[in-house]
């Protein structure tokens, strides 16, 4: 809330708003109902499983991801949110180049996905149908001090599961 002095001097106020996102890349979605309580209990508005929209490379793996859209985990999906990591903590200055950000994020997200699935890093590496991705920083986020990346388990293009892969371990994918 704006201080009385600021309010009286400039007519300013501070506003804190809550938005629903339409995808994992922060695109604001439209909601026709209140978001109150939507992250409690089974968290109906939380990001869990995601439908992937992207292109594949010559080897058949994901090349460019255009959208990761939240979807009910009982519906066929190719990605799942596993958690957040911090990278570049204590690093000030300009946004690092893509290689530095990739190196920081790749190892930490790999470990987060492995833990989520219930595998070691090496065991995750032996599952060719599984990979990782994360969201990216832009210059404004970095300059504001944001150092969190969201990590996602990513399945091979066309390899859709119908349940969460949390704790799956070495088991078969729930297709």
TrEMBL record:
Any one Pfam family match given in the protein's UniProt record, by short name: Septum_form
Superkingdom of this protein's organism: Bacteria
InterPro entries to which the protein is assigned, alphabetical: Septum_form
Span of domain Septum formation-related: 3-151
The protein, known as: Septum formation-related domain-containing protein
Species annotation: Dactylosporangium siamense
């Amino acid at each position: 809330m704006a201080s009385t002095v600021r309010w009286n001097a400039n007519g300013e106020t501070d506003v804190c708003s809550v938005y629903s996102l339409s995808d994992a890349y922060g695109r604001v979605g439209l909601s026709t109902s209140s978001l109150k309580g939507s992250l409690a209990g089974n968290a109906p508005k939380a990001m869990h499983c995601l439908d992937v929209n992207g292109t594949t490379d010559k080897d058949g793996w994901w090349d460019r991801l255009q959208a990761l859209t939240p979807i009910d985990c009982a519906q066929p999906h190719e990605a799942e949110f596993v958690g957040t990591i911090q990278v570049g903590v204590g690093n000030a200055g300009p946004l690092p180049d893509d290689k530095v950000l990739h190196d920081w994020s790749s190892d930490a997200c790999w470990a987060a996905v492995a833990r989520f699935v219930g595998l070691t890093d090496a065991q995750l590496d032996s599952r060719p149908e599984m990979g990782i991705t994360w969201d990216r920083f832009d210059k404004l986020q970095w300059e504001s001090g944001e150092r969190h990346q969201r990590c996602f388990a990513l399945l091979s293009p066309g390899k859709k599961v119908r349940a969460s892969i949390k704790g799956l371990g070495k088991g078969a994918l729930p297709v």
